[in-house]
Amino acid sequence: MQTKRTIFGNKGLPYLLLAPQLAITAVFFLWPAGQAVHQSFLREDAFGLSTTFVGLRNYRALMDNSEYLNALQVTVVFSIATVVLSLGLALILALAVDRMLRSAAAYTTLLIWPYAVAPAVAGILWWFIFNPSIGILPFVLEQTLGRDWNHNLSGQDAMILVVIAAVWKQISYNFLFFLAGLQSIPASLREAAAIDGAGPVKRFWTITLPLLSPTTFFLLVVNVVYTLFDTFAIIDATTGGGPAQATNILVYKVYDDGFVGLNLGSSAAQSVILMLIVMMLTFIQFRYVERKVTY
Amino acid sequence: MVENQRGLDIFAHVVLLLGVATVAFPVYIAFVASTHTSTAFVSGTIPLLPSTHAPASYGDVLAGGVAAQMSVPISLMLFNSMVMALLIAAGKIVISVLSAFAIVYFRFPFRVLGFWIIFITLMLPVEVRIVPTFAVIADLGLLNSYAGLTVPLMASATATFLFRQVFLTIPDELTEAARIDGAGPMKFFRDILLPLSQTNIAALFVILFIYGWNQYLWPLLITTDSGYYTIVAGIKRMADVVESEPLWNYIMAVTVLAMLPPVAVVIFMQRLFVKGLVDSEK
What we know:
The structure holds two protein chains of two kinds.
Chain A lengths: L12 H27 L2 E3 L6 E3 L3 H8 L1 H34 L4 H9 L6 H11 L6 H9 L10 H29 L3 H9 L4 H12 L1 H18 L1 H7 L11 H11 L3 H31 L1
Chain B lengths: L5 H29 L19 H10 L10 H32 L5 H11 L8 H10 L6 H5 L6 H12 L3 H9 L4 H12 L1 H16 L3 H6 L8 H10 L7 H21 L1 H11 L2
């Protein structure tokens, strides 16, 4: 691991400096994570009076549990829809701003502020707009398409609602990174291609998009993590996983089974599976960062 | 620009204006709703133009006691959110700067192990291990306290990595010169490292303030005493009861208040915000 040529020789001081960070990590991260792993091998009776060691049974039960498999499927649909839409829209906006000379800064300011809006608040905003009885969009849908919107009854409507809220919140982040990526592409490359007769569309596919691929890959990982975990608040503030489990994503189910259903063994097993997924994603992200550094 | 294409420029402007409008739309609707009286919603649709009721709506929610579900004054929630956001941001920075200093400027047994333990915190979002973490807080008697709201969120791998990056770019000659002049490690840290990382600290502070302000699940779980409610978690508590008695104008006023501070930070400190965001993701 990288360090300095000139260092200080104190023996005890570095431990003292690290102590606060390590103490918090141990008490609030490692210990609970260990508890989750431990808990996932146990089964508690309904009154919490006795626990028995059941090995991998909690995990095996999940694989046969139709609700869990449903949550898995819901998560995949939700993640793909959110990631594709937020990346696509952000890229279009970033490409447009990249063309601007004088107005670029103003547009940027007007596009990035939703980053500061809490996911829960974003959820509430769209929940209000889509409110079946007084919301503005259900009214418009009814008048123009004759479509009867009700996310309290229709699973499809509920999914659309949470995807829109999640995308709205994430566009600003993706936009900023895409714009930074676009601005780091040397203008000379595009000019050379233009002189060779490549039009804007061709330049986008053959020059801009390939050179943007490190940014896109990085954003892909970050966005998957976002849809898996940070969207908890959006779900909780809008649909609460319903109707009929239609928006019950994995991270919400951990909470729902643990705190509401009090099925601790199963909830812990789900926690462990999610932790493994995050570790994998973090690992991929860091492998990529290392590559970018040596590149 | 490579070539002048009037049509493409106009198209880009149209796309951007549409984007800006879509992004602003929900907030506009919320703001408009907050300027009406609660009777305006009985007719069946949301009004699209602001009314004159805004001072009353905001005054009422800030003072509290409008209805049963809004007995807690929003001004108190805003204060709690502010305390939480500032404590988390400051705590994270202090803890991370110290540990990055230890990792970069000292060589000691278990250094790499310490680094990895910090790295692990990056992998375990609080939502994932929420049940056991809640149990720890309950056992420690930290429910309904500022310590319980903030301390568990203070460990930060990203901030530690960021400061490690910053320190690695600081030339060794500075350290040598400081040592020749007889400066000990803490003096070097205070008089050289901290001033040199000022901008990074400020940029990170902006990001962490937003992070702290927007915390949702954690405050929702560990505060049952209304004196410790934060605004982002508080909205949900109000909206839950809403089906029986929709006080939309008040709920939307609270929503607008909840996003005002962090959005203001992004708009007015945009340079620091962008730097912080890009830095902390490296």
